[in-house]
Amino acid sequence: MKIVGRLFLLPTFALTVVLMTAVITTAQSQDTGPQPPSPAQDPIAQLNLTPEQRQQIRAIREQNKEERALVNRRLRETKLALEQALDADTPNESLIEQRAREAGEAESASIRLRALTESRIRRVLTVEQVKTFRALRAQAQGFRREQRLENQSNPPRRRGLNQRNGVIRQNLLRKRP
């Protein structure tokens, strides 16, 4: 199974970061054509999943595929609605409060679904695989911590416009009455 196909076996964000790093590292190191990643480069391979475990994990992910899509869509929509309320020419604090509450509820539903999915997947893993999984998660957290520190020491340059979540907020430049 290719590493890209393995990306969807475990749903946690932390492991996804590690997997994406492995994909990038593997892609950058492949000068002579496609080669399978070594177990040291492939976090999924480090779990040593059996074919039955892989099938069970796929089934778990398939079971909540539709719910995951709905939750993710709701999360995107509520965050967009909050951004729009914040970007209004005349911000309405009660509307912003309502949109923030809705976004928080959507985020909560997303976290709940990820936690339940991870719990179900962990029941498929052996004790040794869970230990490896925890080590991979700790590695991913360390990577994210390093990225945060790096981003703090090298803040992005701004061009006179306030930017939040990659969206330029031009209405901040307008003068308020």
Number of alpha- plus pi-helical segments: 7
Helix proportion: 55-70%
Contiguous runs where pLDDT drops below 50 for at least 5 residues: 1-14, 16-37, 165-177
Report the top-level CATH class of the largest domain.
Answer: Mainly Alpha
Distance between the termini: 61 Å
Helix-and-strand structural type: mainly alpha
- Second rung of CATH, namely the architecture of the largest domain: Up-down Bundle
Alpha carbon gyration radius: 21 Å
DSSP strand tally: 2
The count of domains is 2
Shape verdict = flat
The CATH topology annotation of the largest domain reads as Four Helix Bundle (Hemerythrin (Met), subunit A)
Largest sheet: 2 strands, antiparallel
SSE string, helices as H and strands as E: HHHHHHHEE
Give the overall average pLDDT.
Answer: 76
The side-by-side strand order for the widest beta sheet comes to: 1-2
Strand content: under 5%
Defining traits:
flat; disordered N terminus; Four Helix Bundle (Hemerythrin (Met), subunit A); two-stranded antiparallel ribbon; 2 domains; mainly alpha; disordered C terminus; 177 residues
Describe the 3D structure.
By secondary structure, this protein is mainly α. It folds into 2 domains: 1-47 and 126-144, no CATH class; 49-124, Up-down Bundle (Four Helix Bundle (Hemerythrin (Met), subunit A)). Helix content is 67%, strand content 3%. It is built from 7 helices and 2 strands; from the N terminus they run H-H-H-H-H-H-H-E-E. It has helices at 3-6, 13-29, 43-46, 51-63, 65-86, 93-124, 127-153; strands at residues 162-164, 167-169. Strands 1-2 form a two-stranded antiparallel sheet. Helix 2 packs across helix 7. The chain is flat, with a radius of gyration of 21 Å. The N and C termini lie far apart (61 Å).
